[in-house]
Amino acid sequence: MEKLKRYVVFLIGLFVNSLGVALITKADLGTSPISSIPYVLSLNFPLTLGQFTVLFSLLLIVLQLVILRKNFRPEHILQIPVSFLFGYFIDLCMALLSFVQPQVYGMKVLYLLIGCVVLGVGVYMEMLADVVMLPGESFVRSVVFRWATEFGMTKVAFDVTMTVVAAVLSFVFADMLSGVREGTIVAALLVGFIARLINRRLEFMSQALFGGTPAPECSE
Q1: Residue 192 forms part of a structural domain
Q2: CA distance linking residue 110 with residue 94, whole number of Å
Q3: Distance (Å, rounded) from C-alpha 165 to C-alpha 211?
Q4: Burial class (CB in 10 A: 0-12, 13-18, 19+), 74
Q5: Shortest CA distance to 17 belongs to which of 105, 98, 109, 132?
Q6: Is residue 220 part of a domain?
Q7: Which domain holds residue 94?
Q8: Which of 44, 116, 135, 138 could form a disulfide with 60 if both were Cys (CB 3.0 to 4.6 A apart)?
Q9: pLDDT by residue (tens digit) across 100-154?
Q10: In this structure, are residues 58 and 80 in contact, taking their beta carbons and an 8 Å threshold?
């Protein structure tokens, strides 16, 4: 019963996460670092943001297999169906928010901040469930495990790398910077802070929901 509740919380968190990504993207000030490469590609090719997110997630899973080798555990395979579901949720949320097209810069900033809060809540819920990691974080943890690096610095390096690669791809395909803007930096700074703040404020939730230990520290 506890496992079932954890997966329900995770699935809700995954949808909330997708809603946050969609809100940030709809703000038209860039998107979150982990979504920056799929977003830039979606602006230049026929596939949607969700579809490119699935492909990018599968690439990260393959890279984890290469990095971890014999330490790649069977439970890592769960990232595959989660990736497809995450991509579907993103496209669903983008469709549901089709009416969101802010023109004034102030409204764009507002949607960006709301998206960061929503995404932070989604990240917290996924960490609270503590059943499956999304490929982005799992990739970072694989690097930390393989080369004994510090998680926080590795996560920052990963986010920066994703953003830089997305910017380069934008110039290659569109001859201009598109899809990577100030909102990408804001999301990188705010989302993890919001998730950790919620985690500290709601430490009792793990005990209340699952009768176990507090949720692990949110590391996004």
Answers
A1: yes
A2: 17
A3: 43
A4: exposed
A5: 132
A6: no
A7: 2-210
A8: 135
A9: 999 999 999 999 999 999 999 999 999 999 999 999 999 999 999 999 999 889 9
A10: yes
Task: Evaluate whether residue 23 is within a structural domain.
Answer: yes
3-class state of residue 3 by DSSP: helix
Helices 49-68 and 79-96 sit at what angle, rounded to 10 degrees? 160
Residue 84's identity, in one-letter code, is F
Residue 185: count of CB within 10 angstroms of its CB: 16
The token pair at 52 is 């490119």
Count of domains for the chain: 1
pTM over 0.70: yes
Query: What length does the chain have?
Result: 220
Q: How confident is the model at residue 211 (pLDDT cuts 50, 70, 90)?
A: confident
* 163-199 pLDDT, tens digit each: 999 999 999 999 999 999 999 999 999 999 999 999 9
In the structure encoding, which two tokens stand for residue 136, read together? 């982005």
Pair 10, 81: CB distance under 8 Å: no
Question: Is 22 inside a domain boundary?
Answer: yes
